[in-house]
Prior knowledge:
Layout: H1 5-9, H2 18-38, H3 47-54, H4 68-92, H5 97-115, H6 117-126, H7 135-156, H8 160-182, H9 187-207
Helix pairs in contact: 2-3, 2-4, 4-5, 4-6, 4-7, 5-7, 5-8, 5-9, 7-8, 8-9
Amino acid sequence: MSLTFWEYMVPKIDAPTVAEHRANVQARLVDAAEAILRAGPSQTLTAGAVSAAAGIARNSIYRYVDSVDDLRALVVDRYLPDWLDAVSSAMATAATPEQRVTAWVAANLEQAAETGHGWLMGATRAMSPNSRIDEAVVGAHADMWNALTSAWQSLLGADPDRVAIAVALTVGILDACFRQLDADQPVDLVLAMGIDTARALTTALRTT
């Protein structure tokens, strides 16, 4: 039996209110999108794949999200705020610039180990510039990088070239550790060696 125009425009809901129904369905869509993204590059995030995994009609998905890219942004937005808050909190409690640099590395590695790094960064890179990611998250991400730069400025002084190189080296340590986590190396070992390397870098550069 085909739906009437009114039934199509106002579908049945499975919650006390339309707003709760909408939130429930959107959460199912985000759950489905996350599962597809976690499955790796062999799985493509499409409206058809997400709607099938969420158990809703394909032509209904755009009642709850504007695009697949916005859905990807909603998945990323589940994790980045807590990730960035953890880094900010770790640096705020560090007593010295050296400890702030190592705290930056440690907190990022801890969050990567907890959430899984590769799939989340892949989802972030795949977002278009117009994705509706939370502006507060974007600002917090910039603050995190500024905090690392500030820590190195405290260690090295106002020489912008030395500070830029030190920041790049720190990020290199972090990226190398991310790759080891993605390769399923032991988490505790990656964290320990990454933190030790960051600490050694602060000692070496400050000495010179």
